[in-house]
Design brief:
688 residues, 5-stranded parallel β-sheet, 31 helices, mainly alpha
């Protein structure tokens, strides 16, 4: 609260002078000092006093890479609401782009622990002002630095008096000087203590007695220059001892300590107790300013979180075992939220995004060699979610860490370990790394065959994944052998008509076609389509893709009469679901035109080529390579049906564009030249 800010006149002047100094690029000022010394309060005061000087003032909590990215993402959405439905990474990139192209703004990076976390951002910026608060004093390169020390004693007493009497105007503050000295004149510790004095109606002397009744190694470490977070932890422990009637409040705070500082869904705590018990615990913590509480979300100051995660062997609230339990509970809560978010709920997307942010934050806060079964489960769940939602590259690190942790905890042949290895192989394949996908897939398959047997469903699944990796790498013969084995197992277990047989059936048919054997592929496509009859799956993307692949296979060996109705049915569904100008729709219409032309339906082929060209001109423009290629297709079709004049006119009209846009040796340019030459030398097949 700005009206409770005291002192710091010298520091404010130094900060203003640093910002005012001329610079050829972004002005970066680092406010550094001990935790709780008031770095954030100083930056906030400066931003308030100089708000009119800046076109935009934005604050980002940067205590972890995940929180830093999330803060940039929120800024990106604020500056451009159109990126709200994009990924966090894309939202943060949007914010950086805006900052790099505008001037007169100020960005505050609060509690930045590692200078390296801001390197990419600062390298992109050439204008504006960046104020960084951090406990770290070195490693900031050419940035201007401002060291912030504890408040002078008189200002510390003034701060305690203001905070306490704001809530309790007639509070007895005798011996406030002694209390401030005991707290090391640290502003955050003083504010916490003053709030306690006012809320619990106790005197500074009684507060000191509570501290002395429970001697703190944290205060002793502080007096020797140790971690100031321990001083804050002592204040936190005394507050809990005095005002928390139920241990649940302590457990709640320890659990909250593992999430990102803000936007913590209240639903994360549902399994801790019934709703009334949790509401009571949250209310108690909010009363003592230990958390921020809204209807759906919770926030906790990062320093309070750090204190809550720090073991205190002599205290009742932060025993190592209790902290470990809270960490695992937090991990399980995120996993449950990710599963709940997969359901068809209006809030599903928001819940998933929140869970992903908090998952990354929790994982950032644990060492890679200290995973538990719960944190490995979270790592695997996060990696699987990223893998299945279009970011397999990011998934690989989490899945690899989950696999290493499970191998250490339960052994290399445990089902959970093999599940992680299977998911890792899948992520490598989706990311395009076929070599690693095959390597990990072969290990998984060999292990599952040894542990579970050749016919176990998990073994069959691993065989299927390895087949797909081999297919992606071009090893079609090996892939076919594995696909055949998978299909045999699935049919033996479920029958041809079961959905479990559909994927290997499609995969095997596709691989037959890719290997140059469409004759073997066609019957499999027919079986797959027949197995879907009566299931009301018509129009499903998988069925549409199956019809298209079936049509391609038929065309491969000249059965256009069978391919055309397949293409026609799929085209109706694509136009309905994707629109007439969607690239997939246009591409399918072109395949139908080709099939019609080969089957002798020449006039229909011309009409389809005309529609393809119209769509590509509308979406891509006149000189896009695909548009020019479609023009060439249409010219050829016109010549085939006997409209030689139109064919020549089309070729001549696009030849200049082909040479200018694509170059004289581009395949499309060569095709147009060859067609024009052929038309001039040879009569149309349809001409007398």
């Amino acid at each position: 609260m700005l009206d409770l800010f005291v002192g710091r006149d010298v520091e404010l002047s130094q900060l203003e002078a640093s910002v005012a100094k001329p610079s050829r690029r972004t002005v970066v000022v680092v406010i550094h000092g001990l935790g709780g010394v008031g770095k954030s309060a100083l930056a906030n005061r400066f931003a308030h006093l100089r708000a009119e000087q800046f076109s935009l003032v934005w604050w980002i909590c940067a205590d972890s890479p995940a929180a830093f990215t999330a803060g940039l993402a929120v800024l990106g959405v604020f500056l451009d609401p159109q990126v709200a439905d994009r990924s966090i990474e894309q939202q943060s990139e949007s914010a950086i782009t805006w900052l790099a192209s505008h001037d007169g703004w100020m960005l505050v990076l609060d509690d930045l622990a590692n200078p390296g976390d801001a390197v990419m951002l600062l390298e992109w910026l050439w204008t504006g002002t960046v104020v960084i608060t951090s406990r770290r004093a070195t490693g900031w390169g050419s940035a201007r630095t401002l060291r912030l020390d504890e408040l002078p004693r008189d200002q510390a007493v003034e701060l305690l008096t203001k905070v306490a009497r704001c809530a309790r105007p007639h509070a007895d503050l005798t011996d406030a000087d002694l209390l401030c000295r005991e707290l090391g004149n640290l502003p955050l510790a003083i504010e916490q203590a003053a709030s306690f004095l006012a809320s619990a109606a106790v005197t500074p002397s009684r507060y000191l007695e509570l501290l002395r009744e429970q001697p703190s190694r944290m205060l002793a470490a502080r007096s020797k220059g140790g971690d100031t977070q321990r001083t804050l932890a002592q204040v936190w422990r005394v507050a809990l001892d005095s005002v928390v009637a139920s241990p649940l409040a302590g457990m709640v705070l320890r659990v909250l300590a593992w999430f990102a500082p803000s936007g913590i869904p209240r639903s994360f705590l549902d399994s801790l107790g019934d709703e009334l018990e949790i509401c009571d615990a949250l209310s108690r913590l909010a009363t003592w300013s230990m958390i921020g509480l809204a209807e759906t979300a919770i926030s906790v100051h990062p320093l309070v979180q750090a204190a809550a995660r720090t073991p205190e062997p002599t205290g009742p609230h932060r025993r190592s075992g209790d902290i470990a339990i809270s960490r695992d509970f937090a991990a399980d809560a995120i996993v449950r939220a990710l599963h709940q978010g997969d359901r068809d709920k209006p809030s599903a997307a928001a819940l998933v995004q929140a869970a992903l942010l908090h998952a990354r934050t929790l994982i950032d806060r644990i060492a890679s060699d200290t995973e538990t079964a719960a944190t490995c489960r979270l790592l695997n769940e996060l990696g699987t979610h990223l893998k299945d939602n279009g970011d397999p590259t990011a998934a690989i690190g989490y899945l690899a860490r989950a696999h290493r942790g499970r191998e250490r905890i339960v052994g290399r042949d445990h089902p959970d370990t093999l599940d992680s290895l299977h998911d890792l192989a899948h992520a490598y394949r989706l990311s395009g790394d076929s070599a690693n996908a095959i390597h990990h897939g072969e290990i998984t398959l060999a292990s599952r065959q040894r542990v579970l047997g050749r016919g176990h469903p998990d073994t069959v699944t691993s065989r299927h994944e390895l087949a797909r990796a081999l297919e992606s790498s071009g090893a079609l013969d090996r892939a076919i052998l594995l696909y055949e084995a998978v299909l045999t197992s699935r049919v033996r277990q479920f029958g041809f008509d079961h959905s479990a047989a559909l994927d290997p059936l499609n995969d095997l048919a596709r691989t037959y076609r890719s290997s140059g054997d469409p004759v073997r592929a066609v019957p499999l496509y027919g079986i797959a389509l027949a197995s879907l009859e009566g299931r009301r799956t018509d129009g499903h993307p998988t069925v549409v893709a199956l019809k298209i692949d079936f049509g391609h296979a038929c065309c491969s060996y000249g059965d256009y009469s069978k391919a055309i109705p397949l293409y026609e049915s799929a085209l109706v569904e694509r136009e309905r679901d994707l629109g007439r100008d969607h690239p997939d729709t246009v591409d399918l219409r072109r395949h139908l035109a080709l099939a019609c032309g080969e089957s002798g339906e020449l006039r229909r082929a011309v009409s389809l080529y005309e529609r393809v060209l119209e769509s590509r001109r509308r979406v891509l423009g006149d000189v896009h390579p695909d548009t020019l290629g479609s023009s060439c297709d249409l010219a050829h079709a016109c010549w085939i049906v006997g409209d030689t004049g139109r064919a020549i006119l089309i070729c001549k009209s696009i030849l200049v564009d082909c040479r200018r846009a694509l170059g004289p040796h581009h395949p499309t340019s060569n095709a147009v030249i060859a067609l024009l030459s052929h038309i001039s030398d040879e009569p149309s097949p349809r001409e007398p």
